[in-house]
Specification:
- Helices cover about 80% and strands about 0% of the residues.
- With about 130 residues, the chain is mainly α.
Length: about 130
């Protein structure tokens, strides 16, 4: 590998580490009582969607399947970051740098899957009422 190839790879790895820290900081901001309610709701939706095993557009659909992950998640994260006051976000980023990365919570995953199931059942009932 030449120098340009390793520089690109090193830069990519740094961006991934930075993204992981930002996601951890956003999770901390979600629990921070100073975070505005609107920012919390956006964070809850974005984090829930990111952790959800179900996508808006399934990944098996060529090209389109990954567009929701490449467009919706960054837009949601950017909106959440804009809604959180800078002082709170700075505090949460500092906490995220000092803390170990959070582990995956099985209960949170179950809650997210349950929400998707309830939403799907509700959607089926709604569609049934229109077509029956």
């Amino acid at each position: 590998m030449n120098g340009a190839g390793t520089d690109w790879l090193t830069g990519w790895k740094q961006r991934v580490r930075s993204l992981k820290q930002d996601i951890h900081a956003l999770a901390l901001a979600l629990r921070d009582p100073r975070t505005p309610l609107v920012a919390r709701l956006v964070l809850l939706i974005v984090v829930g969607y990111a952790l959800s095993p179900i996508d808006l557009i399934p990944d098996v659909i060529p090209v389109l399947g990954y567009l929701d992950d490449l467009i919706l998640l960054p837009l949601g994260l950017a909106l959440a970051i804009r809604l959180i006051p800078a002082a709170i976000l700075d505090d949460c980023r500092a906490q995220a740098r000092m803390a170990a990365p959070p582990s995956v919570n099985g209960w949170a995953m179950l809650v997210i899957v349950a929400i998707w199931i309830v939403a799907a059942v509700g959607m089926i009932q709604l569609l049934r009422s229109f077509f029956v």
